[in-house]
Predict the structure of NAD/NADP transhydrogenase alpha subunit.
Amino acid sequence: MKCISVYTDNFELFSDVFEKVIEIDLQENDERELEGVTVSDSGEVPKHYLERMSVKPEVVVMKDRNKGITILQHGKVFEILIPSDADEIEAASL
């Protein structure tokens, strides 16, 4: 899964930039500022990262079922987890 980090603890601000964040073409380890918020591509994360993070009490897990995206919020960062083509192929074969 591709991970994009959005550095803010303001849910309203995150909601305002969410669509723009998933539309911009960030390369791995690329960092940009969007409406005063730092956004960076954190590369690929393994599937067990989501499983490990979702059991922590300080982590909020949100899903955009239409897009297949999972959002983790903890501390002052939102992490947008976007399935890669390999993830979708794996899920289809189950």
About this structure: DSSP finds three helices and six strands in the chain. The longest strand covers residues 37-44. The radius of gyration is 13 Å. Residues 11-23 form the longest helix (13 residues).
